[in-house]
């Protein structure tokens, strides 16, 4: 089965290499350079499986494209790519219905890995929502195993949200500390280990298929259920 990808990017020097790379991977790729064109594609009888969406579009903000797409019922994966910096934009993008967030400049290999991960997650969720499937509602700050809610502290939730945004990839300890606590945090990094320990215990206790894995000397990775 050939999966389809919609690239929404108005900068040709970014769009063209990206389209060529994805086509070499075997995807059916459509490229548009405005938000209006993107929404038209998403409302077609055969919408794409994955949308790679730039925020800085000439006719409208990419966040509005994301919000309108979700409001219209688009259920495929949306990955935001942007040169905007900071945690606020990342969180806002996820709140608007995005599934992942990648800051420019980015490597094509990393983007390909994220597209593959998004497809695995989208195909699993479209087939069914089995017991133990991890669901994260960023807007509501709630986490579920299947249909059962898991009670997490604010820090546990934030750690999980950062790991889930880079699912199946290692997130360095330094990035977790900077995004969840503060880049100027002077306390012990054992705080992170304690939080990870509690998070693991709660996810395992709820029967979640995904697991948080430590990569010695580097950081942590949220592994998909099929990685077990």
The gyration radius over C-alpha positions equals: 18 Å
Q: CATH superfamily of the largest domain, called what? A: Response regulator
CATH architecture tag of the largest domain: 3-Layer(aba) Sandwich
- How large a portion of the residues is in β-strands, by DSSP E? 15-25%
Helix-strand category: alpha/beta
Residues in helices, as a percent range: 40-55%
Q: According to CATH, what is the class of the largest domain?
A: Alpha Beta
Give the number of helices.
Answer: 8
Order of helices and strands: EHEHEHEHEHEEEHEHHEE
Number of DSSP-assigned strands: 11
Ends: how far apart?
25 Å
Which overall shape is indicated by the principal axes computed on the Cα atoms?
Answer: globular
Strand order within the widest beta sheet: 2-1-3-4-5
Low-confidence residue ranges: none
Q: In total, how many domains does the architecture comprise?
A: 2
User: What is the typical, i.e. mean, pLDDT?
Assistant: 84
Protein name: Response regulator transcription factor
Keywords: DNA-binding, Phosphoprotein, Two-component regulatory system
Organism: Nocardioides eburneus
Modified residues (4-aspartylphosphate): 54
Task: Provide a descriptive summary of the structure in words.
The protein is α/β, with parallel strands linked by helices. It folds into two domains: 4-127, Rossmann fold (3-Layer(aba) Sandwich), CATH 3.40.50; 134-227, Winged helix-like DNA-binding domain superfamily/Winged helix DNA-binding domain (Arc Repressor Mutant, subunit A), CATH 1.10.10.10. Helix content is 43%, strand content 21%. The protein has eight helices and eleven strands. The protein has helices at 12-24, 35-42, 62-71, 87-95, 108-127, 154-165, 173-181, 190-205; strands at residues 4-8, 28-32, 50-54, 77-82, 100-103, 134-137, 142-145, 148-150, 171-172, 211-215, 219-223. The strands form three sheets. It has a five-stranded parallel beta sheet, sandwiched between helices. Strands 6-7-8 form a three-stranded antiparallel beta sheet, covered by helices on one side. Helix 1 links the parallel strand 1 (4-8) and strand 2 (28-32). The two termini are 25 Å apart. The model has no long low-confidence stretch (mean pLDDT 84). It comes from Nocardioides eburneus. Keywords: DNA-binding, Phosphoprotein, Two-component regulatory system. Residues 124-224 bind DNA. This is Response regulator transcription factor. Residues 124-224 form the OmpR/PhoB-type domain.
């Amino acid at each position: 089965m050939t999966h389809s990808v919609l690239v929404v990017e108005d900068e040709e020097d970014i769009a063209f290499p990206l389209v060529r790379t994805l086509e070499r991977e075997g995807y059916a790729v459509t490229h548009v350079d405005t938000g209006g064109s993107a929404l038209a594609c998403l409302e077609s009888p055969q919408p794409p499986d994955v949308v790679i969406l730039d925020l800085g579009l000439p006719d409208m903000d990419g966040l509005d494209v994301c919000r309108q797409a979700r409001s219209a019922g688009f259920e495929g994966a949306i990955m935001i790519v942007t040169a905007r910096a900071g945690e606020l934009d990342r969180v806002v993008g996820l709140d608007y219905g995005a599934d992942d967030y990648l800051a420019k400049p980015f490597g094509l290999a990393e983007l390909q890995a994220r597209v593959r991960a998004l497809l695995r997650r989208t195909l699993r969720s479209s087939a069914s929502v089995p017991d133990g499937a991890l669901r994260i509602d960023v807007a509501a700050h709630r986490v579920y195993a299947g249909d059962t809610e898991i009670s997490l502290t604010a820090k546990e939730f934030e750690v999980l949200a950062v790991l889930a945004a880079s699912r199946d990839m290692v997130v360095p300890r330094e990035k977790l500390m900077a995004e969840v606590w503060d880049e100027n945090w002077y306390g012990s990094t054992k705080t992170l280990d304690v939080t990870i320990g509690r998070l693991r215990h709660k996810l395992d206790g709820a029967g979640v298929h995904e697991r948080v894995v430590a990569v010695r000397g580097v950081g942590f990775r949220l592994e998909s259920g099929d990685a077990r």
